[in-house]
Specification:
The chain has 304 residues and is an alpha+beta fold. Helix content is 33%, strand content 25%. The longest helix has 20 residues.
């Protein structure tokens, strides 16, 4: 991947929401909410990082920064030597709240190493690098390729991208609550009932068919899940009530975004009111929250 000039590169990576309810660990959607990184090679050290934007106070500005650390680890793993560099990070994505912030940072780190070391990697290589560290592609793949992406993990990752209906809005409501992906996964049972597996398989197949064709019928039921959301609700006050909220005009479906804590709702009208109702439920459980009205990103990672 080549772009930018010989000293600097601008990397932009979209946030993502994964699972869409029933499609657990299989589907993700890129969103128009971005991590932007300006990386430059320096003639002399030390390397440095500057951060601004969403949750900037949570992002270190030294070598413990996740993006910086990932760059060092990736370069070591690929046997390339990093020059001194500067990173200017502008972040729009809530950190550790289910919108793919770590996947975005990891992809940006891989793209930065590619640029600084002159490796000329293709996007498939960036996905391979990300998979080696995250182990699942449901956030990595949509942030890399854009759009609605279904992925299979086998000997290698196989991805299928479709465009999300452009007129629909993704309402992302983020409570003031961090959820560890490791903690959220630890709550999942090692085995599930056969009927629960069938429930999710049926709904995932129907969900993808409807989304690809831009059809709204049945989406609320198609996003219902028995594999992960019932267990993760223990970590997120109000989640069960949000998932069960009454049907209202414009609402197409609701789901936990990734491991949480953000919740997403798909809508084709009345977006603001839907977001405010979700915020009201969080507030009734003692959580303040922020609602964002987003469109799908169909470009994925870009370089300038």
């Amino acid at each position: 991947m080549k772009s930018g000039n010989h000293t600097g590169l601008r990397i932009r990576v979209p946030a993502s929401t994964s699972n869409l309810g029933a499609a657990f660990d299989a589907v993700g959607l890129a969103l128009q909410l971005y991590l932007t990184v300006e990386v430059r090679a320096l003639e002399q050290g030390p390397s440095r990082v500057e951060v601004c934007g969403e949750d900037a106070h949570l992002i270190p500005t030294d070598a413990s920064n996740y993006l910086w650390r990932s760059m060092v680890e990736i370069a070591e793993g690929e046997r390339c030597s990093l020059p001194f560099f500067s990173l200017e990070i502008e972040n729009e994505i809530p950190v550790s709240k289910g919108l793919g912030s770590s996947s975005c940072a990891l992809l940006a780190a891989a793209a930065a190493v590619d640029f600084l070391c002159g490796m000329n990697w293709h996007k498939e290589k960036l996905l391979e690098i990300g998979m080696a560290r995250e182990g699942h592609p449901d956030n990595l793949a949509p942030s890399l390729y854009g759009g609605l992406v279904a992925s299979i993990c086998g000997k290698k990752v196989v991805c299928s991208k479709s465009e999300f209906p452009p007129d629909w809005t993704v309402i992302a409501v983020t409570p003031d609550l961090e959820v560890s992906t490791e903690k959220a996964r630890s709550l999942l049972p090692p085995e599930i009932p056969y009927k629960h597996a069938i429930h999710n398989i049926q709904r995932t197949a129907f969900l993808m068919t409807q989304l690809v064709q831009g059809r709204r019928e049945g989406l609320r039921e198609a996003m219902s899940d028995l594999l992960h959301q019932p267990y993760r609700g223990k970590l997120i006050p109000g989640l069960d009530e949000i998932l069960a909220m009454e049907q209202c005009e414009g609402l197409l479906g609701i789901a936990l975004s990734g491991a949480g804590s953000s919740v997403i709702a798909l809508a084709d009208s009345h977006e603001y009111g839907i977001g405010e109702e979700i915020r009201r439920i969080f507030q009734s459980h003692g959580l303040s929250s922020r609602s964002r009205l987003l469109k799908a990103d169909n470009l994925g990672l870009t370089l300038d």
